[in-house]
Structure formats: structure tokens, C-alpha cells
Backbone:
């Protein structure tokens, strides 16, 4: 059965569906030797190339949906390549065969914490769609006095340059003096929205960490620059949020090779963290996970 070209490419992990539509419109994709057009449909045996390079297409039945939780450090950008040579969030991820990792949303360069990656571009596309409104939780360290009136305004809503915005909740999480920690919830993903909300009250954010995406929490044992693969149960929680059928397979299966695979993953994570330290020249700091 034929499917839309951009959907097939996104599912194979070449990018989001929107990115694939842009590539097709730019003439970068060909099907069976002909430049593709938006709206083209393809069969499973179609010969597809991106920028002249043959790509592997997989049906939904062939694809094993995988999701990684990555502890993004400050100083990394959410792009595959950077003209300025800055480190990216893709630098330390494990290799994936016949696909590639697609980030579910973004965190700005000065924000650390939980970032999800999936090998299923369709899942990423649906989770990022504004209609899903998946709640994100952030740990925020503010610098300066925070009045109760300012907190109430952030709860009830303020006007930003791109429209009204508000936190779903805001809770005090301790601190000393003029440095205070807060936990805030937000269902939108507008650019720098958490920082801009605080800045609307003339309050400086000195540290920002995403600690939760939906029900997926940043593991307290996961070091900055490290990653871990989510369980089948967690993957299916995300697929349910996205309105997709459950996955039945996992590469984390409990078989005779699972212990060896766990050791290999652990070694890869340690190498990734060492690479992070070498790149940044800074020791790893453990984020605050205080809860109110």
C-alpha cells in the first residue's frame, strides 16, 4: 500500500515530517530517478534518494520504535551541525542502523536537562504538534526578589511579544537568600518561553533544567552528557500520547544477551560523559531536584 513520501521519510528517521516536506519542495528528494513533488505517494519498493544518496525505507511493521532519554548539558545546541563548531546534542548518541535519531523538541543552549530522541520520526512529529500539549516540568533557579504578586501573575497569565502565556503551576523548591529554586509546569514549547515568563516580571533566571516530559522524568542517576534507552512501557506511554498503536518489540528484551548489552550501553554512556568533559573543560555538576 502506498504512503505519502514525507511520512515514510519521517518514519525512517530522516527528520520531522515538516522538514521532509521542505526537502521535497526544494527538489532534494527523488523517487525512481525522478525529482519528487509534494503529495507524491510511494510503494515499499520505491528507489528513494536524498541529495543523490540512496536511503533505506522501512514499513511501519519493520520499524522498532526506540526512544532515548538524554541529559543535555548547557553549551550544546539542538542541531546536527553547527557552522561555529559548537557541540551538539547529537554528538554522543549511540549509532542506530538504517535510521537516525530525531529530537522531540528543543532546549536552548543555556538550558540543561531531559531531552528525548526517537528513531521513529512520525512519533517525534506527533509529540511536537501543538495540539498534544504534553506537560513539561522545569527546575528554575532565580536571582533576585520574587514577590507573591509576581508569582500570581505568572500563574494567571502575562502578555509576551508572541501572545499570552502562563505557567500551569509554580511551586517553591527552596534556596538561600536571593537565589531561589522553583518548579514550574508548561504545556507549550515556544522559544525560551520559561525564561521570557520570568523576565516579564524583571526576574533573572540563573539556571534552567528540564526535569520531566509528560510522565518521563530525568533519571537522577543519569549524568550530564549521558543517555539511556526507555523501556517498552515508557515508549508505549509516549505512543499513546501521540495517538499511535503500541509497540510490541524492544531492543531491551530480557534474554541471555541482556547483561552483556547493558555493560556495552554503560561503557558507551561513560565514554559520552568523558567526551562531554573533554569538550567543555568543566566538571559535571549535579542538578537540583528539590521538590516542594
Residues:
Amino acid at each position: 500500500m502506498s504512503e505519502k513520501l514525507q511520512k515514510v521519510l519521517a518514519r525512517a528517521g530522516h527528520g520531522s515530517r515538516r522538514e521532509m516536506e521542505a526537502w521535497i519542495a526544494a527538489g532534494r528528494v527523488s523517487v525512481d530517478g525522478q525529482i519528487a513533488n509534494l503529495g507524491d505517494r510511494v510503494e515499499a519498493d520505491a528507489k528513494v534518494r536524498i541529495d543523490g544518496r540512496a536511503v533505506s525505507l522501512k514499513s511501519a511493521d519493520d520499524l522498532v520504535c526506540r526512544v532515548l532519554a538524554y541529559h543535555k548539558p548547557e553549551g550544546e545546541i539542538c542541531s546536527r551541525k553547527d557552522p561555529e563548531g559548537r557541540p551538539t546534542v547529537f554528538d554522543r548518541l549511540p549509532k542506530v542502523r538504517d535510521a537516525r535519531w530525531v529530537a522531540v523538541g528543543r532546549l536552548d543552549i543555556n538550558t540543561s536537562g531531559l531531552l528525548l530522541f526517537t528513531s521513529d520520526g512520525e512519533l517525534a512529529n506527533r509529540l511536537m504538534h501543538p495540539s498534544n500539549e504534553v506537560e513539561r516540568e522545569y527546575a528554575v533557579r532565580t536571582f533576585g526578589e520574587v514577590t507573591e504578586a509576581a508569582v500570581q501573575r505568572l500563574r494567571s497569565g502575562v502578555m509576551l511579544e508572541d501572545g499570552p502565556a502562563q505557567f500551569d503551576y509554580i511551586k517553591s523548591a527552596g534556596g538561600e537568600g536571593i537565589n531561589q529554586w522553583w518548579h514550574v509546569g508548561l504545556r507549550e514549547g515556544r522559544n525560551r518561553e520559561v525564561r521570557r515568563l520570568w523576565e516579564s516580571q524583571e526576574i533573572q533566571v540563573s539556571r534552567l533544567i528540564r526535569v520531566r516530559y509528560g510522565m518521563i522524568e530525568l533519571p537522577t542517576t543519569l549524568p550530564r552528557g549521558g543517555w539511556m534507552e526507555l523501556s517498552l512501557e515508557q515508549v508505549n506511554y509516549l505512543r499513546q500520547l501521540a495517538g499511535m498503536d503500541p509497540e510490541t518489540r524492544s531492543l531491551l528484551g530480557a534474554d541471555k544477551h541482556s547483561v552483556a548489552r547493558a555493560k556495552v550501553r554503560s561503557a558507551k554512556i561513560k565514554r559520552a560523559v568523558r567526551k562531554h568533559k573533554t569538550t567543555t573543560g568543566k566538571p559535571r555538576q549535579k542538578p537540583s531536584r528539590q521538590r516542594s
Remarks:
- DSSP finds seven helices and 17 strands in the chain.
- The CA atoms of residues 95 and 101 lie 9 Å apart.
- The longest helix spans residues 258-280.
